[in-house]
Design goal:
InterPro entries: Bact_Sigma-Reg (IPR052016), GAF (IPR003018), GAF-like_dom_sf (IPR029016), HATPase_C_sf (IPR036890), HATPase_dom (IPR003594), PAS (IPR000014), PAS-like_dom_sf (IPR035965), PAS_fold (IPR013767). The protein folds into 5 domains: 107 residues, 2-Layer Sandwich (Heat Shock Protein 90); 103 residues, Beta-Lactamase, CATH 3.30.450; 150 residues, Beta-Lactamase, CATH 3.30.450; 155 residues, GAF domain (Beta-Lactamase), CATH 3.30.450; 228 residues, 4-Layer Sandwich (Phosphatase 2c, domain 1), CATH 3.60.40.10. Strand 25 and strand 26 form a beta hairpin. It is an alpha+beta fold and 893 residues long. Helix 2 packs parallel to helix 9 and helix 12 runs antiparallel to helix 13. The strands form 7 sheets. Strands 1-5-6-4-3-2 form a 6-stranded antiparallel β-sheet, covered by helices on one side. A 6-stranded antiparallel β-sheet has the order 8-7-12-11-10-9. The chain has a 6-stranded antiparallel β-sheet with strand order 15-14-13-18-17-16. It is built from 19 helices and 35 strands. Helices cover 30% and strands 26% of the residues.
Length: 893
């Protein structure tokens, strides 16, 4: 059997799909041709690669698998088999389907499939963009698309050494530097905890041993860019900043160095060394010393510029920027330094790294490139400020920091502004043109590396965002419940996009926004956050797309925290002049950062607002806001669909209730019980109905019927039938005349008419405890009579149904119910209950009824319903109505 193989390969690679790689593991799964299989395939690939320890390629693998499985199960309509193969150099994933007759894509993917704007055919284009190699294989029964993702080589670690420095050049530290030593076993649980760790974080060793480190770590996370704590613990070496939640609930910033080791039996574990973030110099490699000659300060000589950056990981942008500002500060003997990156349009600069400034000086805060007029008003040129006190506000980033002098230089790549680097000191007149030249030379050396790392981070963020939005769309499309949609919106944003979020909804154009859902990453703060937001006027429902700042929560948190502090020291004044209750300082800090509002717009109407917030001094990065905007559009449509579905369900249920009698009359000497069960989710009006009503002179009418189909047309016939029966019966017409006139009324509906099966009868209780019935069964399942001796027999003969023929000749039959007898009337949802090829049928219903001798009418109907439900495992697919009437036995005196 010939096999045709096409694909592409990277330069220098061989033509074999697996090359010389050694296969170390396999995982496979088959997915049926249904829509939910796409999400299941993504979950399978994600779980497999996560289990193999390949987090860096998960996003690319999930995106490619999603496209290829969609082509198989949705467009081709066949089952799909996904095979994951782990090798020593990467991962190969194969997606096979059973539709090999399609045309071979012999052209380039873009030409073959008509470009990226087409609905289908993007799978191979994505393979071209993301995979190291890919290909397509055809045979007579299968088509297989495969792609391979290579793993980046990870060095085991780099050793560095620095020369001896004079005491004045050594970094400052507390008199007692404490280094927490924590050992983590292969499952991520704490196995060792030293005394310094107990002193720094407040936990004794026995309190934390055996617990996951993830329970204590406050890990910074940005989709697609940051390594999670589980991945960091599996790396051979890792160094960076995060937080540890102390015993008092505060998050303590730490600087950590992780080293992966194994014991004598080969079990892996990780040794974590942690110090306070301010003492990171204890663990960080020290900057190299400058040249000792007089020319060492000039560009081009043997000076620190050659080793300005060191050797950070090529994909660690945050580490690269942090090391840059620290080396810049040390090079110019400054007290602080900061680095900002430019946006794509070069109109704003975003704070990405700083040292020596309070609270990381509002990371991701934005400042304009052109801050003002004059020589020093643009970040595109170097500038030196001798004394910031003389020019207040000249550098907004340094306001209220105590810095007096500052030198800033631009970072440029090919003439384009990519960022700005600044060094500041507390003393005035510290810097001049010589320092600006040195810093500019260093900035020129680092600009290309920073831009390359930034573009790499941006690409990973976009890939992670695509995977995030795919998963979010699946989750939002999986429910039509309004409350669940609101919960999903919040849970997808916290903590991935924001620290907390609130969702406001608007019922209609005349309604005010209502706070509908609040979520915080710390569950203990949700109630306080909700109490605060209730007291704040909601944001205006502006339909303009994009995120806009909303300062009201931060102001309210500041004021409330101030009131709380004043009450604590007894300075709040009397209650009459108090502006309102305070909140905890912890809640105020959690809400005191940047807050943005995104409109929820669906079908050209604002239906609510999604509010995202950060803690004190934190800001959102632009990429996160763009991702949140994409999410808000999907969430708005899902929320509006849930609203429409809820409204339709409420209307249908209200209409269904109107088609059924409000209650059952008390019939003297007769037990009457009815059970009605509507099938489905309640958004369709069923065609089954029943009624029991007084006629005249002690006679009662009863009816049970089934209109063909569901929906508005069936509901119209149902309403016509029930009300016409009552009207005609009370006018004195007998059973045949009532049904013949009803038949004529149904036929008069024309195209809207539906055929109707109906059992109608008149019941007249007798003085001897029996009852006389006159029954007409027009195409309906026959009523069954249960005698006291346990025998069951039909109580009527079948006659033509209604709504089909014009001239009907119907007749009524007389039945006498003796004391203890039961008359059971049902719709076809009972008799046509199915389990595979089996059906309950009339005989099965009769068998159930034979077991009901001596039971009350309510017990009979309940037993019948229970038997129907147990007959099959699946829920009923048709409406059911059960009407039971019983003549009780006379009581012994």
């Amino acid at each position: 059997m010939a096999v045709m193989r096409i694909g592409h390969r990277t330069r220098g690679s061989d033509e074999r799909p697996m090359g010389s790689a050694v296969i170390t593991a396999r995982a496979t799964a088959t997915f049926e041709p249904v829509g939910r299989s796409v999400a299941a395939a993504r979950a399978f690939v994600r779980d497999t690669l996560q289990g193999w320890g390949f987090p860096d390629i998960i996003d690319d693998a999930v995106v490619l698998t999603s496209e290829l499985v969609t082509n198989a199960v949705v467009h081709a309509g066949t089952s799909a088999e996904v095979l994951c193969v782990r090798t020593d150099s990467g991962v190969r994933i194969e997606v096979s389907d059973r539709y090999p007759e399609r045309e071979l894509p012999l052209q380039s993917p873009a030409r073959q499939f008509g470009g990226i704007d087409r609905e289908g055919g993007r799978g191979l284009m994505l393979c071209t963009a993301l995979a190291a190699r890919w290909g397509v294989e055809y045979d007579s029964t299968h088509k297989k698309v495969w792609f391979r993702l290579d793993l980046d080589d990870r060095p085991a670690g780099t050793r560095s050494a620095g020369p001896a420095l004079p005491a004045a050049a050594l970094p400052l530290a507390d008199a007692r530097v404490r280094v927490a030593v924590i050992q983590i076993d292969g499952t991520g649980h704490i196995s060792a905890w030293n005394d310094d760790a107990e002193h720094l974080f407040g936990y004794a060793a026995e309190q934390v041993t055996g617990k996951p480190l993830a329970d204590l770590a406050a890990w910074p996370h940005t989709p697609g860019t940051s390594t999670g704590i589980a991945e960091a613990l599996r790396l051979s070496r890792w160094e960076g900043s995060y937080g540890i939640r102390g015993a008092d609930g505060r998050v303590i910033p730490v600087y950590a160095s992780h080293l992966r080791v194994r014991d004598t039996v080969g079990a892996p574990s990780t040794v974590c060394l942690l110090v306070r973030d301010a003492e990171r110099a204890v663990l960080q490699s020290p900057p190299r010393a400058t040249g000792g000659d007089a020319g060492g300060d000039r560009p081009g000589s043997a000076d620190p510029f050659e080793v300005f950056i060191g050797s950070p990981a090529p994909d660690d942008l945050d580490g690269l920027l942090q090391r840059t500002v620290e080396r810049a500060r040390d090079m110019l003997d400054g007290d602080s330094a900061y680095l900002l990156l430019a946006t794509d349009d070069e109109t704003e600069l975003e704070v990405r790294a700083s040292t020596g400034l309070p609270s990381a000086r509002q990371r991701f805060a934005r400042v304009p490139v052109e801050a003002g007029t004059g020589r020093y008003g643009s970040a595109r040129m170097p500038s030196v400020h001798d004394d910031l006190n003389a020019v207040p506000g000249a550098v907004p980033l340094l306001t209220d920091t105590g810095m007096r002098s500052v030198v800033t230089v631009p970072l440029k790549v090919e003439g384009r502004l990519t960022g700005s680097l600044g060094v500041a000191a507390e003393a005035p007149h510290r810097y001049g043109n010589e320092e600006a030249l040195r810093l500019q030379f260093a900035a020129d050396r680092i600009a290309l590396a920073v831009e390359s790392a930034r573009l790499g981070e941006l690409e990973r963020l976009r890939r992670g965002s695509l995977s995030f939005l795919v998963e979010a769309s699946d989750l939002l499309a999986g429910t039509l419940d309004r409350d669940q949609t609101l919960a999903l919106m919040a849970q997808m944003t916290v903590p991935t996009l924001a620290t907390w979020c609130a969702v406001y909804t608007i019922a209609d154009q005349s309604s005010e926004p209502e706070l509908s859902y609040v979520l915080h990453e710390d569950e203990d703060l949700i109630d306080g956050l909700k109490a605060l937001l209730i007291k704040v006027a909601p944001p205006d429902p502006v339909p303009t797309p994009g995120a806009r700042p909303w300062p009201a929560p931060a102001r309210a948190a500041h004021d409330a925290a101030l009131r709380t502090s004043l009450r604590t020291v007894g300075l709040a004044g009397d209650a009459e002049h108090s502006p309102g209750p305070g909140i905890s300082l912890t809640t105020a800090a959690a809400v005191g950062g940047e807050t943005v509002v995104l409109p929820l717009v669906a079908r050209n109407r604002v239906i609510g607002m999604l509010t995202l917030g950060k803690p004190t001094d934190d800001h959102f990065r632009q990429e996160i806001l763009e991702l949140a905007e994409d999410l808000s559009r999907r969430a708005a449509l899902a929320l509006d669909n849930a609203r429409l579905y809820s409204e339709r369900t409420a209307i249908s249920q209200s209409l269904q209730r109107s088609l059924l009698p409000p209650g059952l009359p008390d019939v003297p000497g007769v037990e009457v019980d009815v059970i009605y069960r509507a099938a489905g989710e309640g958004n369709e009006v069923g065609g089954d109905f029943y009624d029991v009503f007084p006629i005249r002179d002690g006679a009662y009418g009863f009816a049970i019927g089934d209109v063909c189909g569901t929906g508005p047309e069936a509901a119209a016939v149902t309403g016509l039938a029930r009300h016409a029966l009552r009207l005609l019966a009370r006018e004195g017409f007998g059973g045949p005349a009532v049904l013949e006139r009803l038949n004529a009324a149904i036929l008069d509906e024309g195209a809207r008419s539906r055929f109707l099966t109906l059992l109608y009868g008149e019941l007249r209780p007798q003085e001897d405890g029996s009852a006389q019935l006159k029954v007409v069964c027009a195409g309906h399942p026959l009523p069954l009579r249960l005698r006291q001796d346990g025998t069951v027999e039909p109580a009527a003969d079948p006659q033509p149904l209604l709504g089909v023929m014009e001239d009907l000749e119907l007749y009524e039959q007389t039945v006498t119910l003796e004391p203890g007898d039961v008359l059971l009337c049902v719709t076809d949802g009972v008799t046509e209950r199915r389990e595979g090829s089996r059906m309950l049928g009339d005989d099965g219903l009769a068998d159930v009824l034979t077991t009901c001798t001596g039971l009350t009418a309510g017990a009979v109907s309940a037993r019948v319903l229970r038997a129907v439900e147990r007959f099959a495992a699946e829920p009923p697919s048709d409406d059911m109505a059960i009407l039971a009437m019983r003549m009780p036995e006379p009581r012994d005196e």
